[in-house]
């Protein structure tokens, strides 16, 4: 058997509740995007017990997962080959490790003819303990809104932690829908400090939580009465207003403030100039904008280039022009 799994990235718009006064925490919303994309080839048509082609860090991730997988299913390893053809850079806020682990889990299930539900897979790879966006978009694509975890003694979570350090079950999915097909998404990647790694995320959560209840209430109001209606009605302006507020309140404000100052400058300038949804995905530094036409996306790209040209010592910048992905991962037999 020989096959290839292609897995889209995701942008994480915001967490919702890091206060916990109602005995629930986390919750969040995110969107699956076609690019950047992870692509891995799997095969059992080899005589070697294990062949892995790809970065050493990914090999380490794979070997850690394989131990859990073999133990769970009481499997004796057979000769397999795993080759990474494309990968998403880590610590850019695009969910690269979660998507890699899910892709590996799915590939191993196919090679060994075993099955896991999305929930079981997320538990085995140890993700979804804060945000459920990654594992939901892997299987379904589109727009995802989750309701987080129960919080308190004897509940899903007893403290505020990122997904990478949380042993909690995957976040409770609530709303899933396809994104409008006319959307165009521009990802802006400044060559600045990478987003937080596991240890840095833990420290940030411990330092800045619990958030003020008033911020959580205001963010929830904006999501319920602005972002979600805007999404359902494909009203870009309404979504833009909601995200602009969220960017300046709660945990998203913290995440943006910890990045290079150019990130917040660009987010604000883009919003004021074009009134489109704009923000930073997860811990960043990737900035995203959502447009309803190619021409608008091109105008935003040109504007960002001009802003950076006029900034002293501005970093290099890469752009990824993409679209929403409404299907999730894709399997092709070779």
From TrEMBL:
Q: Name one GO molecular function term.
A: beta-ribofuranosylaminobenzene 5'-phosphate synthase activity
Under the heading InterPro entries, the entry gives: RFAP_synthase, Ribosomal_Su5_D2-typ_SF
Catalytic activity, reaction form: 5-phospho-alpha-D-ribose 1-diphosphate + 4-hydroxybenzoate + H(+) = 4-(beta-D-ribofuranosyl)phenol 5'-phosphate + CO2 + diphosphate
Q: Which UniProt keywords apply?
A: Glycosyltransferase, Transferase
EC class, as a word, reads transferase
Q: In which pathway does it act?
A: Cofactor biosynthesis; 5,6,7,8-tetrahydromethanopterin biosynthesis
Domain of life, per lineage: Archaea
SUPFAM superfamilies associated with the record: Ribosomal protein S5 domain 2-like
Q: What is its EC number?
A: 2.4.2.54
Assembly, in brief, is: Homodimer.
Family per record: Belongs to the beta-RFA-P synthase family.
Q: What does this protein do?
A: Catalyzes the condensation of 4-aminobenzoate (pABA) with 5-phospho-alpha-D-ribose 1-diphosphate (PRPP) to produce beta-ribofuranosylaminobenzene 5'-phosphate (beta-RFA-P).
**UniProt name for this protein:** Beta-ribofuranosylaminobenzene 5'-phosphate synthase
Organism in which the protein naturally occurs: Candidatus Lokiarchaeum ossiferum
